[in-house]
Amino acid sequence: AAKQRGKANWVRFTAGMERPVVADAQLGAELRRGLELGEFRVVYQPLVDLNRRQVIGVEALVRWHHPTRGVISPADFIPVAERTGLIVPLGRFVLRETCRQAAVWLAEFGPSVLQKAGPNVSVRQLHDPDFVDDVRAALADSGLPGELLVLELTESAVLRGQQVSRTLHELHDMGVRLALDDFGTGESSLSLLRAFPASIVKLDKSFVDGIEHHEEGTPEANARQAVARAVIQLAGALDLDTVAEGIENEEQAARLQRLGYSLGQGFHLAEPMSPDEVAALMAGQRELDAA
Ligand code: C2E
Ligand code: MG
Ligand code: MG
Ligand code: MG
């Protein structure tokens, strides 16, 4: 029996699942309660035009304000939300909140600071038969133009099957834009780009880390730079926008700019922040524009 239990655990822990079932059930129950009580908030990380150093949009990132555990980051609860299916109502909340907030900023600050606004979307949501209707309703209720909504999907999410492909094409036909997140980390990035109606690729942070050491000629830095260059060339050929993720210093920003990246995201440019902080940033930029 011990051996069997050991084997069961082995399966659990190696299938990319870091928590056993019991903990899932408990955290799942807390997630459900947290959703009912409104404990989730959305923060926004600015997307920055690297040449002009201006905000042109935001990525929406969820946070859980747990009554006893404090603020919990998505890495600690999204996997459980996905396994329990709670990502569907949670994702719907983030989607609706992002559209509502983006429409407010669009009205207040104009289209130059709000060219793109988007939540991350899990594969479970793409399999939800109501997903396309949810997106349509979120746009209609908020008044946000569909072209401004960018849904961030990972390659592994997009890879799966006919139904997902149909959903993505329906969204594309509605004018909603699709971004391939963490690009370069998946298994078949190139073939995927042909089949998938993406308009944006987001170069994963792992290719940005250390890219500034290129001059020193370390093999790792050279390899990252080669990937960054290949991605921007590919994106150019396929007429896709690119965003470089996880920029942590000016040297990285400058190098990516030189490689042709015009959009970036990262702690060096702007951290994820509350809606009030985003509004203050956008207001400051409007004054600069007017001056
Ligand atoms: P992501 O979509 O790739 O989001 C970028 C993550 O990198 C965010 O972490 C952001 O805070 C962090 N980041 C941004 N700039 C930097 C930087 O310069 N350095 C470093 N070290 N990190 C940076 P966060 O908010 O903890 O989110 C982690 C992941 O959780 C996201 O990765 C996304 O996959 C997932 N996620 C977040 N919110 C949601 C959501 O509402 N729904 C779903 N399905 N997934 C979400
Ligand atoms: Mg993302
Ligand atoms: Mg990302
Ligand atoms: Mg990422």
From TrEMBL:
It comes from the Bacteria. Residues 24-286 form the EAL domain. The chain holds residues 480 to 770 of 770 of the full protein. This is Diguanylate cyclase (GGDEF)-like protein. It comes from Paractinoplanes ferrugineus.
